[in-house]
Amino acid sequence: MNRERAETFLRLLAEAELREPALPPLPAPSSSDASFVMMSVALTRAAWALTAVGALDPETAQAVLADTDLALAARHRPEPPEAGVISAARPGWAAGPAGSGRFARATLLARTGRRTPRAGASADVAPQGEPDRYVPIGRMVLFHDETISAEFGLMSYAHTASGARLIAAWQARDPLSLGRRGPPPVEALTVTDDRGNRYALLFDTKGRPGPTCDLSLRPDPPPGIRWLDITAPGEQAVRIDLDRPADLPVPEVSDLDLSAGEHLLNRIAERLLTLASEFPAQLATMAPVPLTSLTAGLGVTIAALEAAEVLSPRSPVPGRLATLCASLGVRGHGITAAPALDLPEPWLSMLSHYHRRKPGTAPAGDGFAAVAAALPELDGIRLVLLGLHNCDGGTWMNALTLGSWVDRPVNHGPLGLEATFPLSIWVRDSAGRWHVARATGWHREGGETTFTLRLTPPLTRSSPWIEVLATGPSAEIRATVPLGWGYPP
Amino acid sequence: MTTGGSGGSSPRDNTGTNGPWFTCLPGCETEVPCGPGRHTVGWEAGSLRLPSHPDAEGELVLAALGGEKARCIELAEAWARHADDLSVLAIGPRGPADEIAVGWDDVIAAAQAGQGPGSVMGSGRPKPRPMPLASQAGPTLARVAARQRQMQEEMLAAQRRRNDILSLLALGYRFQVRLIGQVAATHAAQDGGEQVRPALVAAITGRLAPVAEEWLGIDPDQVEVRLHSGRSWGSTELTGYGAGRRLRVSLPAGWLACVWACGLARVGRHLIVAVQEPGWPTARVLGLRAPGAEPEPLDVHADPDGPGNVPHWEV
After folding, report:
1. B100 to chain A nearest CA, in Å?
2. Cβ of A182: how many Cβ atoms within 10 Å?
3. Calpha distance A321→A384 (Å, rounded)
């Protein structure tokens, strides 16, 4: 990795942008929210990519972009609003073009010493004394009172340094339509363990999209408890067997030699494949998928990664990306590499799914599956899968990670590509079809990150098992995970 | 073909072998709005002058005691704060044709926008607090509050910095190039290593490329610059044809100060690569007739009463 060349590349790209003679005078903004940022997508994407692979620290990248933003604004005096047009813009516009508020949004970052980006693979997993505990459950707890009828599909139990909790899919109804809102009253449930200890439950969605939650146990139970009884008012106790083995076959770990640039480009490809599913009409007719907002500047991004020496000029990945764009009818990406034919099997599986013109195949009905699978450490993090559920036509997997990446700032990229998360995750169902798993809904707490993986396309039936393929730059893990389907939530 | 040579101003110090970097630059003046009127601000021999504020230090003391600080005084402080700020190179002009459209109205509008409600401190209206959840323990809230304070301080610092830069740009092209020269000379005298090299390479590229276009007719995107760190002036090389044509130039950071900022980048048909005997309005420089050629000493002179923003030099 060459950090100096990375920064030089970005700064020279900004210089080229300033030389661009074709920029017309800016029209006056139509609202006070109008942005004066005139930087090209290519520049911002290159900055993002270089930051994502650790070739540039975020402060330097932001400083370069801020300088460029102000430099562009300083060279383009906006035209005044037309006579008679009432603008909702900033007060400065009342003074005409010379008195504009065009710099009101321009911010220059206070220049600080450059920080050395973190090394990518310093493992710092599970420092606590007691081993973590993950147990699949697959039981339903019902709750009813005068105003609410709720169901908790308990998918798994996790006990880590952050505490013990049940991971559940839940839904609540208001049978009398009294307008009751909010989560079910879990404080009405009683919880006891095999040693006679009693616990309270705390409800927390932890930012997850969809109806999943953590039911945290307070106080923290001692290690080694064998079961929990959960009792709702007027209902029989539901026993949760915590001695149940996860039945997880030994995962298969293979070394890889992906460069940071290749890994990032693979993840961009996965995002392309995910977003393509949102355009079933185009996929069904083989029309171009309107994803140029994601692919714009890809050629410059590849050049930036090569300049930073995190992508070999001989890498096959840019060519695969070009083929993928061509297969989806996406243009304007600027990739100069010749299209490659050796696409990875998961990409081919999804393209085949799309091109069978059945992208809108009906998904499986609502339901949840017990899952508890802690995968081996991979590039400094440990991934733990803690439940899967189908809901509203989507398939979601609940997960948490332990490891050093928790300390890194979230780096949201183009169209929600989270580049800080170092893993690419795919799922193969029992019919052999691949699904890309996109992580969303991050919640960081005590050295752990909980999140949800949304599968695209969703599962179409209740697969008895799935194969999870997690890939980092240095290795990949394949794990066959049994799914213990429970009642629908 | 690559050529190199010795002579001219030292690339590694800001005084050159025969004098400071600004010896080839005449003084200049402009007027700025200050208080109820307009005051003259001048630059001479590397320093900003405030003839309307003969007791600037006394005014600073009064300002520290709660008095209002004059804009001229603020300008001088901003100049000093940014004398080594690499952002000046990234934002400032690349040449006389690169017009910066920042006036005092812009400076005032930006400052007022920074003081407006919601600009930094939020709208002032307390936002409803979300219901505490199990994961939001006390220390987390404390961390969030500390982070918000830090973000507000960073935003205020960024606004002050933006207002500084806009004020310095509003002084006009003559002052802008002199500040660029000051920043380049400061960094040429230091070995900032990889911390500053990318910014200096970009700064030289951005200013040499349009000069090279006039000199050779080459596309500015085909100009590649390396930062030269030896005692010689550097080197030039022209390679390839068509789209593969490249002008590769190696120059020290001091070139920006001693040559470019003094309006000496191109004199007649020569690319000037160094100053041997600085002076105003006459100087001896090293010029290249063509890439790869040996630089030749040239006696150049400027019209001291000439118009325009930059000195116009002739052989």
Report:
1. 5
2. 9
3. 30
Q: How far apart are CA A131 and CA A19, in angstroms?
A: 59
Which B residues 205-224 touch A at CB under 8 Å?
205-206, 209-210, 220-221
DSSP for A458-480? PPSS--SEEEEEEE-SSEEEEEE
Query: What is the least distance, in Å, from the CA of A113 to any CA of chain B?
Result: 8
C-alpha radius of gyration, chain B, whole number:
23
CA nearest neighbour of A472 among A411, A389, A403 = A403
pTM for the model stands at 0.81
Is residue A255 classed exposed, middle or buried when 0-12, 13-18 and 19+ CB atoms within 10 A define those classes? exposed
Q: Is pLDDT of A447 > 90?
A: no
Host H or E run for residue A267: helix A260-276
- Number of A/B CB contacts below 8 angstroms equals 133
**For residue A487, what are the contacts with CB-CB under 8 A and spacing of at least 6?**
A140, A153, A367, A368
**pLDDT surpassing 60 at residue B174:** yes
- The C-alpha torsion from A128 through A252 and A269 to A379, rounded to 10°, is 30
Please give the CATH architecture assigned to the domain spanning A133-241.
Answer: Sandwich (2.60)
What's the rounded Cα separation, in Å, for the pair A209 and A454?
Answer: 10
Q: How do the domains of chain A map onto residue ranges?
A: 3-99, 133-241
User: What per-residue confidence (pLDDT) applies to A106?
Assistant: 57
Calculate the average pLDDT of chain B: 84
> Is residue B77 assigned to a domain?
yes
Tokens 């034919």, residue located: A341
Among the listed residues B65, B310, B58, the one whose alpha carbon sits nearest the alpha carbon of residue B172: B310
Task: Pick A4's closest partner by Cβ from B94, B108, B194.
Answer: B194
For residue A420, report the phi and psi dihedrals to the nearest 5 degrees: -70, -35
Q: How many angstroms away from the CA of A286 is the closest CA of chain B? A: 36
**pLDDT, tens digit, for every residue of B114-130?**
665 444 333 333 333 33
Compute the distance between CA of residue B222 and CA of residue B226 in angstroms, rounded to an integer.
Answer: 13
pLDDT score for A105: 54
At B35-60, the pLDDT tens digits run 889 999 999 999 999 999 988 888 88
Which of A102, A110, A202 is the closest to B158 by Cβ?
A: A110
- For residue B45, tell me if it sits in a domain: yes
pLDDT in tens, A212-258: 889 999 999 998 899 999 999 888 999 999 987 767 778 899 998 89
Cβ neighbours of residue B65 closer than 8 Å, sequence gap 6 or more? none
Instruction: Tell me what the mean pLDDT of segment A86-96 comes to.
Output: 32
Identity of the residue in B105, B159, B205 whose CB atom sits nearest the CB atom of A12: B205
Q: Domain count for chain B, please give it.
A: 1
Strands B246-251 and B223-227: parallel
With respect to residue B128, please indicate whether it lies within any of the assigned structural domains.
no
How many CB atoms are located within 10 Å of the residue A117 CB?
Answer: 18
Tell me which residue range forms the domain holding B223. Answer: 21-100+172-314
The candidate with the shortest Cα–Cα distance to A6, out of A39, A38, A52, is: A52
A422 and A301 Cβ atoms separated by less than 8 Å? no
ipTM score for this prediction? 0.86
Residues A99, B105: C-beta atoms closer than 8 Å: yes
